[in-house]
Amino acid sequence: MQYPAFVTIALLLPALQAKAANETWAARTDCVIAKRNYDGLVPDALAALHELGVEHRITQTINPGTAPSNYHGRDLAIEGRDVTAAVDISVRCLDAPNIKRLLSHLALAGFAGWYREEGKDGWKGPTHIHAVWASEPLKRQLQKQIASWLGGRTGLVGDARYMYWQPTDTEKATVAERYEASKAASSK
């Protein structure tokens, strides 16, 4: 019997949460992450990152800049506070297999995520994971990034095929279902 992705995730998430403290990305004294910036992230997204044990790795959430290239700009206001569904996550002290595992865990939690490394997949800038929480109404830029992620692409200018990692069908279905539900809720 085939279960919808949200049922599969509901069954898997508690096990993922229990393992979070033992994951290579969990907080540890031998791997200092320079900056935490939780302010301005959609609260449910922050809660999901906390459950995965990666909230200490957040390096960027909302950015008030108005440039068209600002993917971290305002998505919505909650209780009068501007928030975004875009988040950057440090990969300091993680190797490639663990970065890929983290991308999988993020997808199962409802994030479309890409590993950004200087000179790879068209990225220029600091190395990190850029992720988009798919469960909120999103600005047009992030809608395009979710569609790009679901299509196996980079979400960057040029939108080339993403070569670093690809999500499983279950991971894609999880993000797609959350994204479609958020679009339906925002159109009511």
What would you note in describing this structure?
By secondary structure, the protein is of the alpha+beta class. The protein is 37% helix and 13% strand. It has five helices and six strands; from the N terminus they run H-H-E-E-E-E-H-E-E-H-H. The strands form two sheets. A four-stranded antiparallel β-sheet has the order 1-4-6-5, sandwiched between helices. Helix 1 crosses helix 5 (169-186).
Write the layout of secondary structure elements.
Layout: H1 5-20, H2 43-52, E1 58-60, E2 76-78, E3 81-83, E4 86-89, H3 96-109, E5 111-116, E6 128-133, H4 140-150, H5 169-186
Based on CA inertia axes, which overall geometry fits? globular
Give the spatial strand order of the biggest sheet: 1-4-6-5
Largest sheet: 4 strands, antiparallel
Distance between the termini: 33 Å
pLDDT < 50 runs, ≥5 residues: 1-9
Give the % helix.
25-40%
Number of strands: 6
Quickly list its features.
about 190 residues, alpha+beta, four-stranded antiparallel beta sheet, two-stranded antiparallel ribbon, disordered N terminus
Structure, briefly:
The protein is of the alpha+beta class and 188 residues long. It is 37% helix and 13% strand. It contains five helices and six strands; from the N terminus they run ααββββαββαα.
